[in-house]
Amino acid sequence: MRPRRSARWGYPLTDAPGPTRVLIVFYSRDGSVEALAKAMAEGAEGKGAEVRLRRVRELVPAETMALAPGWAAGAERMNAAYPAPTADDVLWAEAICLGSPTRFGGASSELRGWLETLGGLWYGKKLMNKVGTVFASVSSLHGGLETTILGLYPVLAHMDMIIVPQGYGHPAAMTAGSPYGVGSISAGAERRPPTDDDRDLARYQGARVAHCALATRSLRDNA
Questions:
Q1: What contacts 209, CB < 8 A, 6 or more positions away?
Q2: What are the per-10-residue average pLDDT scores of the chain (223 residues)?
């Protein structure tokens, strides 16, 4: 069967049965990473994927959260909206998208802490050939967006996953985000939400991940 080609993005589509399963695991404090996660879910769902959105939980006590205005309220809202990720979610997924704000040039301790819980799945080769990608948000220009994304790709490599970056396939990629993964700049205290281009790039990255998960399904079936 000759593959069809997407009119919008240009890559081939297949007619394999069953929707791909995409897990989006993120940590967000002020909503920027959450907004990118939701846009990425839209992109994956637009390619027919089944998506689970999950938010990792805080590691710090309530008194620490109280030091940052809006932290506790935002956590309460998002925790009510999104379940915490579980090992069953990871086993279910064919693709895993990781989202994090930047903390001192790297991923948040909340997301890293959750990744530490996957050692048993890694040891049992349960993550092999799953598709993985990363997205992030940062508060200032040159504040560590790319180092945050690149710092998580070695984790995916150690877990035997297939890494899928954003790349330059979308027209907005030349002026927004990063070829390594979509990202947004919240402009410090102004807390600017992701731009329209940021969200569109997240949709593109989500669609690309869903497509790659479908295209590599036979690798997981035969692992």
A1: 22, 40, 44, 95, 97, 131, 133, 164
A2: 41 59 95 96 97 96 87 92 97 97 93 96 96 94 89 96 96 89 79 91 97 94 70
